[in-house]
Write a structure and sequence with these properties.
Elements lengths: L1 H15 L6 E2 L3 E8 L7 E7 L5 E8 L7 E5 L2 E2 L2 E7 L3 E9 L10 E11 L2 E12 L2 E7 L2 E3 L5 E9 L4 E5 L3 E4 L4 E5 L2 E5 L6 E5 L15 E5 L4 E4 L1 E4 L3 E6 L10 E9 L4 E6 L3 E10 L4 E6 L3 E5 L2 E3 L10 E4 L1 E3 L5 E3 L5 E4 L2 E3 L6 E4 L11 E3 L2 E2 L10 E2 L2 E2 L58
Parallel strand pairs: 2-10, 11-13, 12-14, 13-15, 13-16, 14-17, 15-18, 16-19, 17-20, 18-21, 19-22, 20-23, 21-23, 22-24, 23-25, 24-26, 25-27, 25-28, 26-29, 27-32, 28-33, 29-34, 32-35, 33-36, 35-37, 36-38
Antiparallel strand pairs: 1-3, 3-8, 4-7, 4-9, 5-6, 5-8, 9-10, 30-31
């Protein structure tokens, strides 16, 4: 009867195991730009057996072996090679892939490829692995100064610090990337960002995969701690926690702590601009929008002077106003500190959002404390239409008529030619005669906000 046992076993194998091959959810696993020495996110693909019988995969292996920059994991098991893997009928397995690229001598992006090979029933199949790599300058708890150019990206881990009396200049076209919770910290030094209309300086996280394109809170922000007079021109600051955080003012500054022009600040998990405890900010042609809480928050006093700007709360996760002014704060020691607002101007600007209250005030007046603010020729959405001398020529609760923001790559909130903001600006409050993207302002009757109508 031994021959019968052998025959049945043989028949059983023929019946149970498919002679067919595999299918895959993708033919290429592509990683968008990855900085050298920085690991990627994990990607995955599925390995299908679309047959009515199990299939036995003789070997699965990473072609590059130990020299490959890629790492693979088959259904929870890491390795370079996997043998005799059986996939049940009409079932599948997951393969997970990561990559860390080594540095090379070039400044331009490069591509690194490998393959995962599958040998099934005498046939070889493969899935291509491809990653775009980019060399970069790296800073990890580093004191920085001098000039950052645009030849390679700059990647910050934890802190890059411009220390006391030092200056950092960032040239047009530079790209500054931040690892999780990292920040550029200006500690009694100064920052000079020199973007242009055609070559903006970009501040964003270090994950460049499409999934992270609009994820808030990927890094902290640019923090000015009692900084010397600094400037930011033609920048894009996005996807952090607090895009710009100004704390105090350098004692001997004769000018503003920070001047911002022609800049977008958006998609931060908390604040677009946070001015705390005496900072002094001047801004023209700035667009602050889609932030988690406030577009602009003044806390415990300080100064602000904005022209042709917009502060917009659409895209927030709270009911907070877009523009909030509070001149006091109770700190951890239980003491309430009250600060003055010596200059608080908003001219030719838009304050708008989803809720009914987009302009919030919470101030304490006492001896020695100054409260001085003026809004002139602004479009403001607010349930309280202030009727005081501090509000001049205000257009309350108008439909601004932005372009279709759902089809606009970064939800810029550009006004249309049908907007009530067209030709309503006061030219006396205009000092820059191009808008945020370089279009000529329609003088002598400019449009209100950072954009001329399109």
């Amino acid at each position: 009867m031994a021959w019968l046992s052998t025959y049945l076993t043989s028949c059983k194998k023929d019946i149970l195991l498919s002679k067919d091959y595999l299918s895959f959810s993708v033919d290429t696993v592509l990683f968008d730009t990855i900085f050298t020495t920085v690991g990627s996110t994990t990607k995955r693909f599925k390995i299908y057996n679309k047959n009515d019988r199990p299939v036995k995969v003789s070997t699965i292996y990473l072609k590059g072996g130990t020299s490959s920059p890629y790492r693979v994991n088959l259904d929870g098991v890491s390795g370079l090679k996997f043998n005799n893997i059986t996939i049940p009928a009409n079932d599948s397995l997951f393969m997970f892939v990561e990559v860390t690229l080594g540095e090379n001598s070039g400044n331009t992006p490069f591509i690194i490829e490998d393959e995962v090979i599958f040998e099934t029933n005498g046939k070889e199949q493969s899935v291509l692995l491809a990653a775009w790599g980019q060399n970069a300058y790296f800073y990890h708890d580093t004191l920085v100064s001098g000039v950052w150019g645009a030849d390679k990206p700059h990647v910050i881990y934890n802190l890059a610090v411009v220390d006391s009396l030092q200056n950092l200049t960032i040239q047009a076209g530079a790209k500054i990337h931040f690892h999780k919770q990292s920040m550029l910290y200006i500690n009694s030094g100064s920052l000079d960002v020199q973007g242009t209309f055609s070559d903006k300086v970009i501040f964003e996280g270090d994950r460049l995969e499409p999934f992270y394109k609009d994820v808030k809170g990927q890094w902290y922000g640019i923090y000015f701690n009692k900084a010397q007079s600094s400037t930011i021109d033609n920048a894009i600051i996005k996807n952090g926690t607090a895009g710009i955080h100004v704390y105090g003012d350098y004692p001997s500054n004769s000018d503003y702590t920070l001047k911002i022009t022609n800049t977008e600040i958006y998609n931060h998990s908390s604040y677009g601009i946070f001015n705390y405890s005496g900072g002094r900010i001047d801004g023209e042609n700035i667009s602050v929008h889609n932030n988690g809480v406030y577009a602009f928050l003044l806390l415990e006093g300080g100064d602000f002077n904005f022209r042709h700007s917009q502060f917009i709360s659409y895209g927030t996760e709270s009911n907070s106003p877009a523009f909030a002014i509070k001149n006091y704060f109770t700190r951890d020691n239980g003491v309430t500190y009250i600060g003055s607002i010596n200059e608080g101007n908003v001219y030719n600007s838009i304050i708008d959002g989803g809720g009914e209250t987009q302009l919030g005030f919470d101030t304490i007046v006492q001896a020695g404390v100054t409260i001085n603010y003026n809004f002139d020729t602004d479009f403001i959405k607010n349930d309280n239409q202030y009727n005081t001398s501090r509000f001049t020529n205000i257009f309350w609760n108008k439909n601004i008529k932005y372009k279709d923001v759902d089809n606009d790559a970064v939800n810029r909130y550009i006004i249309t030619t049908a907007s009530p903001c067209v030709n309503k600006g006061n030219p006396l409050n205009t000092t820059l005669f191009q808008d945020i993207v370089g279009n000529s302002r329609g003088m002598p009757t400019p449009d209100v906000g950072p954009y001329e109508a399109q």
